[in-house]
Amino acid sequence: MSTPILETKGLCRSFGAVIAAKDINVRIEAGEVVGVIGSNGAGKTTFINMVTGYLPPSSGDIRFEGHTLIGKAPRKIIRMGMARSFQVAQLFPELSVLENMLIALVAAESPRPSFLNPVSTPARLRQADEILTEFGVERFRDSLVSAVPQGARKLIDIAMALIGTPRMLLLDEPTSGVSVEEKFPLMDTVMRAVRHHGVTVLFVEHDMEIVERYVSRVLAFYSGEIISDGIPAQVFADNRVRELVIGHGHGAPASEKSRSKA
Ligand SMILES: Nc1ncnc2c1ncn2[C@@H]1O[C@H](COP(=O)(O)OP(=O)(O)OP(=O)(O)O)[C@@H](O)[C@H]1O
Fold it and tell me: What are the structural domains, with CATH classification, of the chain?
């Protein structure tokens, strides 16, 4: 059996009396697109935070391409090939999009970047322009990030996470705060880029239409546990998921909407 790109074994995390992760065992193969769903407080962010080194588990193991991530700092995990973008784009709002991109390029080149040397080299400018074009946000190149629409900001943040050629990308609610008109084009752009770069993706998402359209597998969390794991149709048909996840203020998948209209 080949080594999975990500594997967790017996992963647990408590905050005092609250059990935010309870015996999480998942195995993700390279090339999968995995959606993580669950109601508020189900443990989705706790799971992502543990996998990316922001939160130490209380017990259990996490392996990326067979190497343990336990005890490793977020920067080290990024260098191993696992990138992350956050619910709120982590950009410098008072710098231009291009300046943000150049900083990300410098940071990806060296573990201890020196900003005493020129940041804006011809090679980096070319690379920044290529990335902005790939993500369809080149028209914002010279705008301040603070003046850029939310959807484009998210794309820029995800584009920056892909600098350094990670093999896995974790996204925390890529479409949150993005308008209904923007959400599908945004996801189309992201998925095209990750396919192009051969990146395995796992993303937390509250919008079931997005989950249904883009993922090959769903992990449904409830109260710190994975209550269902499978292809979207299977997970959305699961009675516990319907009762505990989809029934709790989450947008129903399109297939559910058409079923209830019939
Ligand atoms: N730093 C913390 N200190 C104390 N309790 C925490 C902390 N982080 C998370 N929790 C608790 O752990 C549980 C899981 O929280 P988590 O943020 O992982 O859920 P979530 O599924 O990401 O929710 P949401 O969709 O609202 O972001 C919740 O009960 C939460 O209150």
Answer: 6-261 (3.40.50.300)
